[in-house]
């Protein structure tokens, strides 16, 4: 069936004769929402997008064009990781002939200022991208009032109603707090990226991406860091062997690990924040960071009234094309809790636009999506972990590993190794997963992801000529089998 696109200044009539202000109204101008808006507009749709006023720290009523990743997530966090990495670089430099005779000072406020300048610049770029694509931008809080209607509450309290053939929810998620006594004394990653003063003593609760990354940042900038998490190892869901390696690196850099331990209460004292654990331990911190996951942002969207279903975790339920239980309402990104990564939200937004406005029914493909934890050094993976491969394999799983001292460290003397791993299906020779923990891991893994997406075999890895001298060449020289795991046996590591 043909559908009449909206032309600027005109209304559109749907097949049922209804008239709408827009073809598409997007709530949330983060990565997924912006991508969906631009691609949809490129297909000829008349698009509007609403977003909360800009601020580095989000709430129910403030946010900003660019969303979590750009304003209070991946981008500013990696800027801080870069800043924290220099401490080790200065030490490495000495054995390369650099004579640093005077103490090297660090100015936290300068780094914070430059970080804020950069996210402000990116906020402006995202606005220009939308404007150049012909998307109408509206500032305010969007609420769904009917299957084809959105009410935008502006900062002065004024409410405006807009109708649309399709509504896209792209509101993302927000960091959550742990309900313990004194929780108001803790901060989330939002505030951690905008602290007025660099803490000297930091306590972090959590074992995921954010917890590990901030532990690396603060320790790299000179703070003492205590990291508490429920499991025996951080980074639940990653390859067990690589988790152990990350834990070893964190410990080696002076971060105090507290596995199997959580916080029971926080209280304010003259010396700082008093932290009590579930094991009865006590310590004093300047800052306590809750890095215990996030919640989908849709509580104020009015979903229940219009019949949009959510699951038991609070995520908006969608089908494989990102359509909700209400046919005219769709959702992409973290608010759906499928795979909460910025590039995935971009993929979902693109597939939505192609499906609804491009005449190309497109489903997001979640296979072989690479990701990285920007700890120091970073961890990056693509495909299946060893444990996942064993669960899914019909035959034996072959594991190849390499552990080595990077060439740079053989001169600098830093006691830190790089670890690489390939998981291979014994019957087909296909490489099922790859992992790396070491300098430049994310840069290397992006290329490996292309190979795995194309179905590369171990023989093809082996026949590829390496770049010498580089760490990356190890991925094509791992010819000695580390272990062979049968389906019925449990994996063993050589740690």
From TrEMBL:
GO CC terms, sorted: cytosol; mitochondrion
Names of required cofactors: FAD
Keyword match NADP: yes
Superkingdom of source: Eukaryota
Enzyme Commission numbers on file: 1.8.1.7
GO BP annotations, alphabetical order: cell redox homeostasis; cellular response to oxidative stress; glutathione metabolic process
Ranges of residues in domain Pyridine nucleotide-disulphide oxidoreductase dimerisation: 369-478
Binding site for FAD: 78, 142, 171-173, 334
Keywords, ordered alphabetically: Disulfide bond, FAD, Flavoprotein, NAD, NADP, Nucleotide-binding, Oxidoreductase, Redox-active center
InterPro entries for the chain: FAD/NAD-bd_sf, FAD/NAD-binding_dom, FAD/NAD-linked_Rdtase_dimer_sf, GSHR, GSHR/TRXR-like, Pyr_nuc-diS_OxRdtase, Pyr_nucl-diS_OxRdtase_dimer, Pyr_OxRdtase_I_AS
Record carries keyword Nucleotide-binding: yes
PROSITE patterns given in the database record: PYRIDINE_REDOX_1
Annotated catalysed reactions: 2 glutathione + NADP(+) = glutathione disulfide + NADPH + H(+)
Molecular functions per Gene Ontology: flavin adenine dinucleotide binding; glutathione-disulfide reductase (NADPH) activity; NADP binding
Domain FAD/NAD(P)-binding: 22-349
Residues binding NAD(+): 206-213, 293
Annotated S-S bridges: 69-74
Gene3D superfamilies with a match to the protein in the record: 3.30.390.30, FAD/NAD(P)-binding domain (3.50.50.60)
Cofactor binding summary note: Binds 1 FAD per subunit.
Similarity remark: Belongs to the class-I pyridine nucleotide-disulfide oxidoreductase family.
Subunit structure as annotated in this protein's UniProt entry: Homodimer.
Chain's role: Catalyzes the reduction of glutathione disulfide (GSSG) to reduced glutathione (GSH).
Protein name, entry field: Glutathione reductase
Organism: Acorus calamus (Sweet flag)
This protein's encoding gene: GRC2
